[in-house]
Amino acid sequence: MANLARNNKILLELVQRPGNNLCADCSAPEPDWASYTLGVFVCLNCSGMHRNLPTVSKVKSIRLDYWDSSLVEFMQKRGNSEAKAIFEKCVPTFFYKPRQNDCIVLKDQWIRAKYERREFTGENNKFLQIYTSEQFESPLWKKGRVNKQFLKRNFLLSQRDFTLKYFIKEDSKVPKAVISMKDLNADFQPEKIGHPHGLQISYSEDDHTRNLFVYHDDGTIIASTVLFKNQCQTILNCIPWLYKRCFSTQLVPQLTSKSLKEGYMEKTGPTTRESFKKRWFTLNLTNRKLLYLKSPLEATEKGFAFIGSESHGYSVSACSGQSKRGGRWRWGIFLKTPDREYVFMCEQESEQKEWIEAFRKIISQPMTPEDYASTLLLCQITFYHFVHVQAFTSHSFFFHR
Ligand SMILES: *[C@@H]1O[C@H](CO)[C@@H](O)[C@H](O)[C@H]1NC(C)=O
Ligand SMILES: *[C@@H]1O[C@H](CO)[C@@H](O)[C@H](O)[C@H]1NC(C)=O
Ligand SMILES: [Zn+2]
After folding, report:
1. Could you tell me which residues come within 8 angstroms of residue 384 by beta carbon, excluding any fewer than 6 positions away?
2. Closest of 47, 84, 77, 78 to residue 62, by C-alpha
3. Within its chain, how far is the Cα of 6 from the centroid?
4. Are strands 33-35 and 59-61 parallel, antiparallel or unpaired?
5. Max CA-CA distance within the chain?
6. Which of the listed ranges 77-91, 108-122, 123-137 does the model predict with the highest average pLDDT?
7. Are residues 315 and 336 in contact, defined by beta-carbon separation less than 8 angstroms?
8. Count of beta carbons in the 10 Å neighbourhood of residue 278
9. Centre of ligand 1 from the C-alpha of residue 104, in Å
10. Sorted alphabetically, which Pfam families does this protein's record hold (predicted)?
11. For the whole prediction, is pTM greater than 0.70?
């Protein structure tokens, strides 16, 4: 027992040192696990992924497990900085290393690439070619807009013109779509898509958010797709800074963004006569937009609302009671904007709470000059809808004037 206490104490001191004080794989602070075969300190989350690679890594808790003196000596000798010099020796300059909050597939593939495939030790050039080439090409299974089936499409990410293209056939010369990487977002959505490597790719086109839903059975392919995209976007974001210091961490952009909140709610049209309909909503903190779609896997939204700040007359509160007009859910949210009052209904109280919290987060945040610019744009779009669309259809639109 004396040894247990003594050795754990040594490890707890060791983990405080610079280099060891951040997880070797995702940079999370205060790691309290370690791989005693690789000699690295990692966070609980990454330790789980190490456990899946028993031939290269064996992990223990530095607080709770018994540590032999010889293992502690190895940890003293190796440590995160030394391991980095070995396993991350040849990481390409613009390679995006996953962080704590990145998706599990990305972190898992990073850990496998580093320790299992030893892609960055300099022994093996095969993998480096992917990251140092100017393009990345692979088939992915993409959900059809109309027939809703996943079909094999050829995807091509190009670092030369910073685009994502996809082709219907392997030998097609003309792409079905050419998408700029400037605002391209790729977010792992395994549950929504129903595949462990499901990826939602979003971008904006003609003031609409467009979604592509893709997957590949091989996790390496899907992770490489995202890593290559991130790498291109890092370069793209760095170009104006190339003469300054491009590699400082502040300049690494937020490459994958998550919605602040997503889920089903019931909504009604702008007048009091329409009935409630169940819709999928997604709320974006960055552009302050609440989008609504018919279902989670729609290619484009049906409509959206801009969520301004408190000082501009936006507010949110809970309201209760079952609505009469066709709604089945009873946990209500009352959203007030200068133009319109919305009522949304949630199925559960917890959902209602989470939505209100998410709306409050945006409403309490002051608007930036870009937000003002986009409000102006929204007014024009609203006007456009009114004149050109609403006049010809009987659909109810989210906005009215
Ligand atoms: C690890 O992190 C991922 C993504 O951040 C999360 O989904 C998962 O639940 C975490 N697992 C553990 C054991 O903390
Ligand atoms: C949120 O909006 C920003 C700005 O338009 C965009 O770059 C980002 O990808 C969006 N996030 C999601 C999850 O769609
Ligand atoms: Zn970690």
Report:
1. none
2. 47
3. 42
4. antiparallel
5. 82
6. 77-91
7. yes
8. 16
9. 7
10. ArfGap, PH
11. no
